[in-house]
Design goal:
Length: about 475
């Protein structure tokens, strides 16, 4: 086998192989381990020298399915509580397949009015879901990291313009360092965005009131007074260790009083806005200058999906547009071209799974899912509080439960090692996945619930596997 032209009739048959594997695979996610260590050997199926003559379409797809359905981490199932990871709703998963089927160049209106319109509608629906003004500009990104990059690039452009500079055109040379202020909840991806933007990974000044990282508003107020010029505040809506929130409304007040830019990272926490019972957590987000979130977390669409919204849409084009290539549309093109509003150039029709899941389940579906996950987190929090040897380290705010194992009689200096051991045992067991972090200086577990498939039985299994491992140690 060599030239794919000889196999052009195999495409549909290859896709049918995938579709045939999908039913049993997806059906197994409910009961199989998150990671079956016994299947790791299948990964070797991928690894051989580059074939001189190809192995052919069908043989290759079958091999990929055999290795993948066995040895992949089954993190899109209901019991991957590690990090902050969602799954793919039925409509989102199918939307993603359609994205591959149609293989659009989704960055330019000219190459795909269809993908462009889908993105415009998906962004409008997302703004509606989150209570953001429709006038905000928006763009889909590959992740929250890229979305933070997008929002902070606009902040940097705005800040440069306040100094009479066009940073997009001329760079940062000759300008003072851009002042960036945040509480201790600042996510590493914002640091990474600042690093890429030439503002320095360690360029953010952290104003934390205590060891939890809670923002010190009075200190931020004083710092903004001292700066006496344009500055950027980064607020976090949903912190990864505990799910806690910066007081977004109060940060918005500070930003207004000092003429600062407020960027809000709501990678998963922005979804609190979908529930009337939780929306107070993000009150004020509609006053931010840039707001971002993730699609592949709580929206439950496949990787890679994030989005950024910016209050002043023209800043997006000034930050990312004006390519100046003769073959690309001019800056005054009446059509929207999403590749001049964000960091990517060529890109897939990322909107299709977003559009599909929002159409399929609507505002009500997302409200129910977010509230169910909040209930599940409260349930696990209650189980932890009732156990004499477990310690809840922070109140359950949203969908993350931060706790540790603290058996009586164990000296405090041994607890970190004990919890690291518990985290490693959980991963080795594989029935549920949850990992450790350091919170307030101690090693802790922080399972997060935001997969659409997750129910009470999955959370109870997490609790019982933790109990089993603990009992094994005692015996
Ligand atoms: C997950 C997360 C990010 C980064 O998201 P990616 O999609 O992994 O780039 C940023 N901020 C917060 C608060 C997050 O939870």
């Amino acid at each position: 086998m060599s030239d794919p032209l000889h196999e052009r009739d195999q495409t549909a048959a290859a896709l049918e192989e995938v579709a045939r594997a999908a039913g049993p695979y997806l059906g197994s996610l409910g009961d199989r381990p998150v990671h079956d260590h016994g299947a790791d050997g299948l990964i070797d199926l991928l690894d051989h020298p580059l074939p001189e003559r190809g192995e052919g379409t069908l043989d290759t797809v079958r091999r990929l399915l055999r290795a993948g359905t066995g040895a992949a981490t089954h993190s899109s199932g209901p019991r991957f509580f590690h990090f902050v990871v969602g799954g793919s709703t039925p409509a989102a998963q199918a939307g993603d397949w359609v994205t591959s089927l149609l293989d659009q160049a989704g960055g330019l209106w000219l190459t795909s009015p269809f993908a462009t319109r889908a993105e415009t509608v998906a962004l409008r629906w997302l703004k509606d879901l989150f209570g953001l003004p429709e006038s905000y500009g928006g763009v889909l990104t590959p992740s929250a990291t890229f979305a933070n990059l997008t929002g902070l690039a606009c902040a940097r452009q705005w800040w440069g313009e306040r100094h009479g500079a066009d940073v997009a055109a001329d760079g940062l040379a000759g300008l003072p360092p851009m002042p960036v202020l945040a509480g201790g909840y600042l996510h590493p991806s914002s640091r990474k965005a600042l690093q890429i933007l030439g503002c320095g990974r360690d360029g953010a000044r952290i104003l934390a009131a205590d060891e939890t990282g809670r923002v010190d508003l009075a200190a931020m107020d004083r710092a903004l007074d001292e700066i006496d010029g344009p500055a950027v505040i980064i607020g976090n809506a949903g912190e990864v260790n505990t799910g806690d929130f910066d007081p977004i409304g109060e940060l918005a007040d500070l930003a207004e009083r000092h003429g600062a830019w407020l960027h809000v990272d709501g990678a998963f926490g922005l979804f609190a806005a979908a529930s009337p019972r939780l929306s107070h957590l993000v009150e004020g987000v509609e006053r931010a200058h840039s707001v971002i979130s993730d699609g592949h977390k709580w929206l439950n669409v496949p990787y890679e999906s994030g989005f950024a919204f910016v209050r002043e849409p023209e800043l997006m084009a000034r930050s990312f547009g004006a390519w100046g290539a003769a073959y690309l549309p001019p800056g005054d093109d009446p059509h929207v071209n999403y590749n001049v509003l964000g960091p990517e150039s060529s890109r897939r029709a990322r909107a299709l799974p977003v559009w599909a899941t929002l159409r399929a389940y609507g505002r009500q579906g997302y409200r129910e899912m977010v509230e169910r996950h909040h209930d599940l987190a409260l349930r696990l929090g209650a189980i932890v509080e009732e156990a004499p040897d477990l310690e809840l380290l922070a109140p359950v705010r949203l969908c993350v439960v931060c706790f540790r194992y603290r058996p009586p009689g164990v000296p405090p200096e041994e607890l970190d090692a004990l919890n690291a051991w518990l985290g490693a045992e959980l991963l080795a067991d594989g029935r549920v996945y949850a990992g450790t972090t350091t919170y307030r200086g101690v090693t802790a577990l922080r399972p997060a619930m935001l997969n659409w498939r997750t129910t009470e039985a999955d959370v109870d299994l997490l609790a019982s596997v933790v109990r089993e491992i603990i009992d094994r140690r005692a015996s």
